[in-house]
Structure to design on (314 residues):
């Protein structure tokens, strides 16, 4: 956003923590002139394995339930925001894996990505409020200009440029797997149990997760904090070079202190157990005193209890 010359007020959070709702509330309450036009939030921060509660963010922005009105025996409820700010959400690694309610939370713009949970997803979703705001915005526009897309959609051509048709077919197949084969609720539940199994493995290894409180635990990636005498990059290098296992590096302030285990997308229980076994081997090779099989056993205990039978094979 700074590259687009927006005036950005960044609210920094400690590594392992989600959105600081108190600071956000203070800044909006102080903005009586409504100079702030949008609040941008990362739903799931993959660098630390932290998920923020977008519903709580919306409550801070303010949705007041007013008295109901009656017209011909039909009761309608009116909602009024205490601050007219737009809510923009980075849902790149969350949509399709973590519970996300765009309408209920009144999210104005959600941006997701093809390389994450949905696989081959469209660039994003936007609300009528966001589209209306874009009509009056003076900011620099690029490839994804809503105005051009809406104009073509109304004319029946849908795309202002030549689309990547093969990606659209891939998106259709991916959505069918999520919505028709497994079911979105089951997909979200699968991510949840894989994450819990991974966290139990980390505890069995005598290590800690990066997320400082359970309310911030991510269900798509787990950040693992290594002891001060160990460089997490060494674990990652050994895992890749010796065991063909790709782990995520620690980024920014947690570089060298954290490695990340992803359990996002089309990952099942047996794939996760194999990955956890590989982590144990890598930890052993770099000198960390882990009992081989301890994390795998802890994860198995969770998965054996929580994994349901495959519906199509009942």
């Amino acid at each position: 956003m700074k590259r687009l010359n927006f005036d950005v007020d960044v609210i920094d959070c400690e590594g392992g923590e989600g959105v600081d709702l108190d600071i956000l509330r203070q800044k909006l309450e102080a903005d009586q002139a409504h100079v702030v036009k949008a609040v941008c939030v990362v739903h799931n921060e993959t660098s630390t394995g932290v998920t923020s509660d977008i519903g709580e963010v919306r409550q801070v922005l303010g949705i007041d339930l007013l008295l109901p009105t009656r017209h011909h025996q039909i009761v309608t409820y009116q909602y009024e925001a205490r601050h007219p700010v737009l809510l923009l959400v980075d849902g790149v690694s969350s949509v399709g894996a973590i519970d996300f309610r765009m309408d209920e939370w009144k999210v104005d713009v959600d941006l997701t990505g093809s390389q994450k949970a949905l696989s081959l997803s469209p660039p994003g979703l936007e609300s009528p409020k966001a589209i209306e705001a874009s009509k009056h915005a003076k900011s620099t526009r690029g490839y994804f200009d809503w105005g051009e897309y809406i104009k073509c959609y109304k004319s029946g051509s849908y795309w202002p440029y030549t689309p990547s048709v093969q990606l659209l077919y891939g998106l259709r197949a991916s959505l069918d797997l999520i919505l028709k084969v497994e079911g979105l609720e089951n997909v979200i539940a699968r991510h949840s149990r894989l994450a819990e199994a991974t966290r139990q493995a980390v505890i069995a290894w005598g290590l800690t997760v990066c997320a400082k409180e359970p309310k911030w635990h991510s269900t798509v990636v787990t950040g693992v904090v290594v002891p001060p005498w160990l460089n997490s990059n060494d674990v990652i290098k050994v895992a890749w070079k010796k065991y063909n296992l790709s782990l995520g590096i620690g980024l920014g302030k947690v570089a060298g202190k954290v490695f990340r285990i992803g359990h996002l997308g089309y990952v099942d229980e047996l794939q996760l157990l194999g990955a956890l076994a590989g982590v144990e081997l890598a930890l052993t090779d770099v000198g960390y005193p882990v009992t081989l099989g301890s994390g795998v056993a802890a994860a198995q205990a969770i998965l054996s209890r929580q994994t349901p039978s495959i519906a199509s094979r009942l």
